Amino acid sequence: MVSVFINVAAILIGGCVGLVCGRHFPQRVADTVMTGLALCVLYIGISGAFAGREILVTILSLALGGALGELLDLDGRLNALGRQLEQRFGGGRNSLAEGFVSASMLFCVGAMAIVGSLQSGLLGDHSTIIAKSLIDGIAAVLLASSLGAGVLFSSAAVLVYQGSIVLLAEVLAPLLQDAVVDEMACAGSLLIVGLALNMLKITSIKVTNYIPAIFLPVLYCQFI
Questions:
Q1: Per-residue pLDDT at 138
Q2: Count of structural domains, the chain
């Protein structure tokens, strides 16, 4: 779990730096930074989407995953959590839920989070997660300066998600082969594209409701 704690610390430190810097930015500067960041997020999503090898897996994952998320009302539940956090910690000029969702998607989705956690759990090799921590720390500075304190709470999502993979590495390793990780990264990257479009205010996609799509390739790839 050492690598996971390093990753969490990097996000918290980067987020705090971003919050301090963000307070000194006028709204128009914050909006410009936000737009530039959204374009970078769009690039990350498009690049990662090409990792997929089976288009059928991607289609089924997004269709069924979105339906499952809608039935569970994941977006509504997360917004309710965000409102509770805002009531307790104060909202500021940005929604805590928005910062939490945006940062959690970026920090948890992707091959580095999965493969790096498996390496930490199985081999004691923390190099991939440490490299990811550096990237996440820099991203946290930019995100927190634009989206506010909600970015800090995403560290909890990283702790639970990556920590679970590390602790269950021996059990999950046979299921998370290269092909499965690629399909998970593809589905997750498409959600990042949707997230970027929301950040640019082009769409209002309930990205949270599609989160189950990231994990469905684990089932599909056992049969395809």
A1: 84
A2: 1
